[in-house]
Amino acid sequence: MKEYKFYNAKNANIIDERGLTPRDYYDLLSNIWSKKTCAPRMQDRWTKENQTLGQCSITAFLMQDIYGGLVYGVPLEDGNFHCFNVIGDTVFDLTSEQFGDVRLDYDNVILQSRDVHFKKEEKKNRYLFLRDELFKALNK
User: Fold this and answer.
1) Does position 56 have pLDDT exceeding 70, yes or no?
2) What is the pTM of this model?
């Protein structure tokens, strides 16, 4: 069985209408995340080896579209937030690997709004591209 390293991967057992878990979506997104979907301020540091870098908000809101629930943000030292999902009693963070061995504090969090995040046109466009590519992959 494949070992997933994203936060709470072992307990991310929720299933969507297609019968897919967050682990399945991680696998699909691993073929879609790219420099193009990475936050512009991080694109110069994006690599295939660190593919989740700069992908958090667009990925979390995409998972919210699929599973419902809420998107929360861990406050970061630079004033930004790292986004992750809470669906019922299930917490998972598909993009946590970008922090390496640093353990984020998933208890000290703030509810995130897609309206606020998507006021940035570039972020909304990255989200739409990621969403469209994911649904193309699902329909193959």
Assistant:
1) yes
2) 0.96
3-state SS class at 134: helix
- How far, in Å, CA of 35 to CA of 84, rounded? 20
At CB < 8 A and 24+ separation, what contacts does 16-23 make?
A: 16/66, 16/67, 18/138, 22/63, 22/67, 22/85, 22/92, 22/94
Rounded to 5 degrees, φ, ψ at 37 are -90, -5
Q: Of 57, 62, 87, 58, which Cα lies nearest the Cα of 73?
A: 57
Please state, in angstroms and rounded to a whole number, the distance separating the CA atoms of residues 75 and 110. Answer: 8
Token match 């984020």: residue?
104
Locate 132 and state its tokens.
Answer: 């469209």
Contacts of 45 (CB under 8 A, 6+ apart): 53
